[in-house]
Each structure stands twice: as C-alpha cells, then as structure tokens.
Amino acid sequence: MTDNTVKIDATVPSTFQIGDELNVNRLGYGAMRLTGQPGNFGPYSDWEGGQKLLRRAVEQGINFIDTAEAYGPGFNEELIASALHPYPQGVVIATKGGINKPAPDDIRADGRPENLRRGCEASLQRLRVDQIDLYQLHRPDPQVPFTESVGMLATLKSEGKIRHVGLSNVAIAQIEQARRIVPIASVQNRFGISERDNENVLDYCTKHGIAFIPYGSLGAHPLKQGAPLANAQGILAEIANRHGVKPNQIALAWLLHRAPNIILIPGTTTIAHLEENIVAASIKLTPDEIEALNQMQTV
After folding, report:
1. Three-state SS string across the chain, please?
2. Residue 232's pLDDT is what?
3. Residue 10: is its pLDDT beyond 70?
4. How many Å apart are CA 283 and CA 277, to the nearest integer?
5. In the predicted model, is pLDDT for residue 230 greater than 70?
6. Which of 97, 207, 257, 281 could form a disulfide with 119 if both were Cys (CB 3.0 to 4.6 A apart)?
C-alpha cells in the first residue's frame, strides 16, 4: 500500500481482519455498477474509464473490492483483472457465486454443488488468480438443500480454490447451519441507516467476529442507478450541513461507527464520487449525532 491510505476517524477501527487474517480497510469498493446497463448486464460501456476508477480506488488506499459472477455476468470480474492484475500486495478481491443470470431481468438462484464449482472455477480464470480470497454464496437456493451448497464451498476451500467462505442474503439460522460445516468469514446482507431489517444479523456477526458487508448502504436499488440518500432531508441533512458534507457521506460514516466489523462497499462509476465516499471515513460523529442517527426513522 502507498501512504495515500483511507483514513478513518480515530475513534473507530480503521481496519478489520476477514477470517482473522486478511487485514482490509473498512472503506472498500463495490464494483457492481461497472457493468452494462440496464440490469448490470453485459460489459461496461467505458472499459478504460472503469479501469482508471479501479486503479484510483487502490491508489487511495481501498484494498477490498467486491464483485460477483452475476455482474455482467462475468464481465465485472474481467474488468477488475484487466485493471489491477497483478494485484498489489494486500488487495483483497471478494466475489460471489450461485446465481444464473441469462438476461438483465432474469436472475435465478442456482446453488447446486456442480454450479457452484463451475462458477468458482470460472471466477478463478476471469480474476486470474489461483485462489479466491473470499467467495460468497450469492443467495440460498430454495430448490437446493442449503447444506449441499455450503458443503461445496467447504470442498472448494479444502481444495485451495477458496481462501475464505462467506454468505449473502441469509438469516441467522442459516449462518449457524453453515458454521457447522465450514468457518464463515463474512455475511453480505442489505443494510443501511434507512433500512435496518438485518440489524439482528449484524449484531450476530459482530458478536462472532464475522465481517458484515452491507449492500444498498445508501438506499440504492441493485438494478437501478442513483443513491436515494444522496438527497436525504431531515436529521441526515442537518448533520451533513454541520460537517460541511453531503447526507450520503454521513450515512456511510454512521455505518463505520455502528459496528467495528462492518466493511463498506459503496459503488460508483465516477472518480469524484469515489473520493467523496472516501472522505466519509474521516468524519467524526459526536455521541449526540450518533444517537440522533440511531433514532432516525427507517423506511
């Protein structure tokens, strides 16, 4: 890493160790938007621009990048590799499998063991790595026993193709079920200051030292552009004005204060917004501000 690292307010931890060994800055980057539109389908229209953004993210100290086979599908992983491979020391790439996406609006869970093996091996090739740092089940497949899906991830880990196993879109009971099969290093569920349905899952992960990687942290729809909290009013806007920043930056700062195991992955397609998100890590919220945000009405 260079000296231009993400600097998080000293009152909260600046890093978290995924699986007790992968030390990452808690302000990461979600690469999903660097895909064709609509529907995050097809290759990103500005491939060179996407490469520049990813390189800028790493230059600024972001060393955790989140992607998935379903983003593109596949093209997002290829873009990351084309921009960053050979990966700088300490950069962690997390990807996900278990989704079949034949069209922009056709997204199907496919947690069959044979599909997870195929997906993992394809991601290895696209990312140009021998081992994936963090491989997450994108979502449980109701047509496949959960233990069979997790069992294949455990097998891929034992084969050395996966370093750490994670889950996404899961409940506490599923996390506990999975932990009886293989160590679980991360959980990626939807969560943010305006959507807190997964607060119990976050608290469980915090208690057990599991990284919690919230998606939709700024209220964005996964298949639509824009971040609703960027123009939020009320207490978010009031605190943002007090700090001379934007509401979305306060929403990110609140998450970093909320729990030490949260790793943020805000996505963007512009370097300006990327650097705006990075600034959020240096915002120091007062105890009164944190309490006011904690009490903010959710949607």
Report:
1. CCCCCCCCCCCCCCEEEECCCEEEECECEECCCCCCCCCCECCCCCHHHHHHHHHHHHHCCCCEEECCCCCECCHHHHHHHHHHCCCCCCCEEEEEECEEEEECCEEEECCCHHHHHHHHHHHHHHHCCCCEEEEEECCCCCCCCHHHHHHHHHHHHHCCCEEEEEEECCCHHHHHHHHCCCCEEEEECECECCECCCHHHHHHHHHCCCEECCECCCCCCCCCCCCHHHHCCCHHHHHHHHHCCCHHHHHHHHHHHHCCCECECCCCCCHHHHHHHHHHCCCCCCHHHHHHHHCCCCC
2. 72
3. no
4. 11
5. no
6. 97
- Burial of 151: CB neighbours in 10 Å, binned 0-12, 13-18, 19+: middle
Res 14: pLDDT:
94
Would you say 241 and 281 are in contact if contact means Cβ atoms under 8 Å apart?
Answer: no
Q: Which of 44, 71, 135, 215 is catalytic?
A: 71
Q: What b/e sequence results for 12-28 when a residue is b if at least 16 CB atoms lie within 10 Å of its CB, and e otherwise?
A: bebbbebbeebebbbbb
d(CA 38, CA 106): 12
Half-sphere exposure (CA, 13 Å, Cβ side) for 26? 28
d(CA 202, CA 214): 9
- Indicate the pLDDT class of residue 219, thresholds 50, 70 and 90: confident
* 215 catalytic per annotation: no
At a CB cut-off of 8 Å and minimum separation 6, what does 75 contact?
Answer: 35, 36, 42, 43, 44
Residues with Cβ within 8 Å of 142's Cβ and at least 6 positions away in sequence, in order, are: 109
CA distance 133 to 131: 6
Token pair 């997002």 in the structure block, residue:
76
pLDDT tens by residue, 41-62: 999 999 999 999 999 999 999 9
